[in-house]
Amino acid sequence: MQNNINKSNRLNNLSYAIRGPVFEKAQQLEAMGQKIINLNIGNPAPFGFDVPDEIVHDMIMNIRNAQGYVHHLGIFAARKAIMHYTQQIGIHGVTIDDIFIGNGVSELIVMTMQALLNEGDEILIPSPDYPLWTTSVALSGGKPVHYICDEESDWNPDLDDIRRKITRKTKGIVVINPNNPTGAVYDKDILEGIIKIAAEHNLIVFADEIYDKILFDGAKHIPMASLSDDVFVMTYGGLSKNYRATGFRGGWVILSGATHRAKSFVEGFTLLASLRLCANVPAQYAIQTALGGYQSINDLVAPTGRLCKQRDLVHYKITDIPGVTCVKPKGALYLFPKIDLRKFSFKDDEQFTFDLLCEQKVLVVSGTGFNYIKPDHFRIVFLASSEELETATGRIRNFLDHTRTRVDELELA
After folding, report:
1. CA neighbours within 13 Å on the CB side: how many for 390?
2. Alpha carbons 300 and 94: distance in angstroms, whole number
């Protein structure tokens, strides 16, 4: 009798809820011919958000130059453009060799943790988080330790909680700003507090700033690496969100600050960059044009822009539902509403998202899928058209009204 071929034990407790069991159920329903409103993933292209024409043009014009392998860190022109960008946003001392281009930020996050972590090393990660951070730490043999982001303080990180969770095994702090999934844009004093903590404990700061241009209502994004030259900071950015080019898989990481402390780590990171030979080359020819050209995202996030109007619409519709509250996002592409579970018959966010899909054909992601500590939130992506968002939020309201407890019905009456 042959033994079963099993997955690695390292994968046993790992998940990615954005494409997890509820997503798989949605695919089954679509295969049966049912129309699903997909509000689960920040993928602009299916909703009519196109990559700017000049970026596509430059990729086409250079496609012959993109046939072969290139330098394992990335092509010179792309890294030079990123270096110039760091000068514009106040990150000091970055050289060409401090910039690594990857197949999206996702690849670079995994490479970072593989190059850094030994068994049992700890990384502080926000709760809620973008789940790849938690998964990549665990996959690399480390221990993800989640610090609280406070909903009552516009989802800013709790500095005291960060301090309490630092141990002798802690290697770094992840900061996702603007935040996925909450849409928070962190206050300067909070960012300075994190930098101070990192300096006191010799920690690395991993600054996930992929949404740094998607800002609403005059919110200002402050790059973590601009706040200190004495802390080693890794800043992650790319084409996926600001330039609506998720499929191009063009991302980068910038090393700055106390790079002299990280020579051994950089050797390891460079080795991993070399092992994959190089990142996707056609996308690298888009980077210089993207960073140096007209920033079309500004039109989309302006008060009259499509993204801003859709955010406002969803926030109004969701918070108009009795029993649902939501901090209005200042950035990114998401809302993270809270459900008062006492008012409804379902037990938690996972049951809510599954039943909502099955009954109303609307796909969202549970809050616990983002490693949030309480099972009473969910994430909505507001990329769909206003008409589709009207329909989706109406269905969410219908579902919640249908599952409302008798006590709450009497109170509303």
Report:
1. 4
2. 30
> Which residue positions in the chain have pLDDT lower than 70?
1, 15, 17-19, 406-413
Give me the residues paired with residue 368 across strands. Answer: none
Rounded CA gap, 222 and 374, in Å?
29
Residue type, 153: S
- Secondary structure string (H, E, C) spanning 31-84: HCCCCCEECCCCCCHHHCCCCCHHHHHHHHHCHHHHCCCCCCCCCHHHHHHHHH
Strand boundaries in 128-245, DSSP class E: 143-150, 156-157, 170-176, 204-208, 233-238
At 317 the pLDDT is 97
Q: Are strands 170-176 and 122-127 parallel, antiparallel or unpaired?
A: parallel
Cα(239)–Cα(334) distance, integer angstroms: 18
- pTM beyond 0.90: the answer is yes
Burial class of residue 223 (count of CB atoms within 10 Å of its CB; 0-12, 13-18, 19+): buried
- Tell which residue, 284, 220, 227, has the closest CA to residue 252: 284
Asked whether the beta carbons of 179 and 186 are under 8 A apart, the reply is yes
Bridge-based pairing of strands 334-335 and 338-339 is: unpaired
Distance CA 57, CA 169 (A): 48
Could you list the beta-strand ranges (E) of 177-217: 204-208
- Residue 112: CA count within 13 A, CB half-sphere: 34
The token duo for 238 is 């790319």
- Report the alpha-carbon angle 224-226-228, nearest 5: 85
**In the sheet that 365-366 helps form, which strands lie side by side, from edge to edge?**
334-335, 378-381, 365-366
**68-93 pLDDT, tens per residue?**
999 999 999 999 999 999 999 999 99
Percent of the chain with pLDDT over 70: 97
Cβ atoms of 332 and 180 closer than 8 Å: yes
Amino acid, res. 162: I
- Bridge partners (DSSP) of residue 255 are 234
Strand ranges (E), 122-267:
122-127, 143-150, 156-157, 170-176, 204-208, 233-238, 251-256
pLDDT for residue 179: 97
Coil, helix or strand at residue 197: helix
The residues near 223 (Cβ < 8 Å, ≥ 6 apart) are: 89, 90, 91, 207, 209, 212, 235
- Interstrand relation of 37-38 and 156-157 (parallel, antiparallel or unpaired): unpaired
**pLDDT score, position 408:** 62
